[in-house]
Amino acid sequence: MLLCVERWLTAPMQSRDGTQESRNVGAPQGGPLSPVLANLFLHYALDRWLTVNHKDIPFCRYADDGILHCRSEDEAHYLRERLALRLRDCGLEMHPTKTRVVYCKDSRRVETHEQIQFDFLGYTFRPRRTVSRNGRPLLGFTPAVSRQVMTAMRQSIRRWHLTHRSELSLDQLAQVLAPRVRGWINYYCRFRGSEFQPVADRLDRAIIRWAMRKHKRLRGRKMRAISWLAGMKRKQPNMFAHWCGRGAFSVGAMGAR
Known about the structure:
Shape: flat
Radius of gyration: 25 Å
Largest sheet: 3 strands, antiparallel
Strand content: 5-15%
Oligomer: single chain
Distance between the termini: 49 Å
Mean pLDDT: 85
Structural class: alpha+beta
């Protein structure tokens, strides 16, 4: 197995014009084995090191992104220095701008700091107004889908060019959209699902434009098309994945506390 990995790492890289370039270090970007090897390397270089040397520091890592939860700012800066030395010993370095010390501000942590939010795995963690289990309003440090992801989803909807799919029936259109939209909802609506509503509204507007192009009686009549869509929601509330029965999204468990 080790021999196979070594041969793969040292195999020459061939460009589109057929020329080959010899390699003796690193893994080719985009190679199928590259993320597997990177994950194995970080498991021993980082995860095991943290577990052995900093047992009291909770951490989470996905690929080359990670979060370490410290109890104080001094501890965070100390651990950052230690982590930089450890990665340097392993031939790696932390990203100079993406690596930050963030203050998790909420109702219990009320100090003022410059950095009070961060993005991780498509979610933005920051202070948000929430409601306690007793119904009292409070400030919580909670996740919700990030603005960058919301922008990417809206751009994806635009690239689908739904108005050009007039050969589809409404049921077929719903089936075409379902896998991607259901994937978005299952992942990004896990916490504070109400934040997804602008994307759902964008999908509805795309369906309205599709209907105005497909049906002559709706062509050029936007208000009539809006009424038509509202009627379809009442008749078949589960047709589209983003309608969710009532056309709204419920706040997840973490966002409700």
